[in-house]
Specification:
This protein is an alpha+beta fold. It contains 11 helices and 17 strands. The protein binds adenosine-5'-diphosphate and magnesium ion.
């Protein structure tokens, strides 16, 4: 039987470029080579696409972009091509499925997914609309809230809003408050504001990442996550918990875990974990997710479950939260990757 050609995309024109290199390396190393033929496509920070034929180790080191390993390509939107074109030679390379292992803007936010929909190329993960909704922290909250699930109280602001009016509008929010770019990830541009004096800088920082920001009340509790897998029939991993010393789960903590810890399973009893899982499944469905996603929520002292966000392409090294949560219920990372690809093909 011929192997399935999987175009694995890494890097990306996004502030989470570096995170993608790590995720992608892990996926590429764990993909079942008996079934799949991975075709590696690197996207530079500037947004240029290259077919990469160098060593896998060079990806994570960010040394992948070398002339001898790379050929510039472009995906074809012509459905009969079903793949990409090597720019220099004009050769059309057909693929069976695209696998964006990209985080944040231009990879996880629906844009690339839209390109594959237009080209009629199957792809791994949530579709264009769902990806775009999940990337929009305000829109995702509005939809989830409409179905009776709790979300933090928040306000949406636009770049041309007057700063004094912004501060006036949020004055009923109790501190700490969180100021976030509307669309970002890895905690880029987010400030936990603990005193009034911090608010101006926090607003400026968030606007440097996006033209829209949200300011929301801090939820007094800890963050819990759920790995969800599936299109119609859903599998869910064990619930994990983020233990913070202080501050919040910022970029440094996420990738070094210097003072914070991921606790698996979360330290709440089985009945409560089940409530968390059910809420995660409901959120996954409300937001139209398919393939896979990690649903993040807060669990408060008075046992409320409050929605935070859905990551449609969560960190996916073998030791990342998503694979770990599924491992806890018996799925090896290799099998998870296999399932992701099959779900994309069978959508
Ligand atoms: N409303 C909130 N209450 C308490 N902590 C929050 C709140 N919003 C965000 N945080 C903290 O900030 C981190 C990053 O925020 P999040 O909205 O998840 O952004 P990102 O998409 O960058 O992960 C969370 O993991 C959590 O530690
Ligand atoms: Mg988050």
């Amino acid at each position: 039987m011929e192997k399935i050609k999987v175009a694995c995309l890494f890097g990306g024109c996004s502030s989470e470029y570096d995170v993608s290199l790590v995720s992608a390396t892990s996926v590429i190393n764990n993909i079942d080579r008996d079934k799949y033929d991975p075709i590696l496509i690197g996207i530079t920070r500037e947004g240029n696409f290259y077919l990469y034929k160098g060593p896998i180790e060079e990806i994570e080191k960010n040394n992948w972009y070398k002339k001898e390993f790379c050929q510039k390509i472009t995906f074809s939107v012509n459905r009969e091509d079903h793949g990409f074109i090597v720019m220099e030679t004009g050769e059309v390379v057909k693929i069976d499925i695209a696998f964006p292992i990209l985080h944040g803007k231009n990879g996880e936010d629906g844009r690339l997914q839209g390109l594959f929909e237009l080209a009629n190329i199957p792809y791994v993960g949530c579709d264009m609309t769902s990806s775009a909704i999940c990337m929009d922290k305000f829109l995702a909250h509005e939809l989830v809230k409409n179905r009776g699930i709790l979300v933090p109280q928040s306000y949406l602001f636009l770049k041309y809003d007057n700063k004094e009016e912004i501060k006036e509008k949020i004055k009923d929010l109790a501190y700490p408050i969180f100021v976030k770019p509307l669309k970002a990830g890895s905690s880029f541009g987010i400030t936990k504001v603990t005193v009034k004096e911090m608010i101006d800088d926090a607003i400026d920082l968030a606007f440097s990442f996006d033209d829209k920001i949200i300011i929301e009340e801090g939820i007094d509790g800890f963050e819990v996550g759920c790995a969800v897998l599936g299109n119609n029939v859903l599998t869910i991993g064990e619930v994990d918990e983020i233990e913070l010393q202080d501050g919040f789960f910022d970029y440094e903590e996420k990738y070094t875990l210097k003072t914070s810890k991921i606790v698996l399973p979360a330290r709440i009893d089985e009945k409560e974990r089940d409530r968390v899982r059910k809420t995660a499944l409901e959120i996954y469905r409300i937001l139209g997710c398919e393939g896979f996603a990690r649903v993040d929520m807060f669990y408060t002292k008075d046992k409320k479950i409050v929605f935070n966000e859905v990551n449609t392409i969560p960190g996916c090294t073998s030791h990342s939260r998503y694979p770990s949560m599924l491992k806890e219920v018996g799925y090896e990372f290799k099998d998870v990757i296999d399932k992701w690809i099959r779900l994309g093909l069978n959508r």
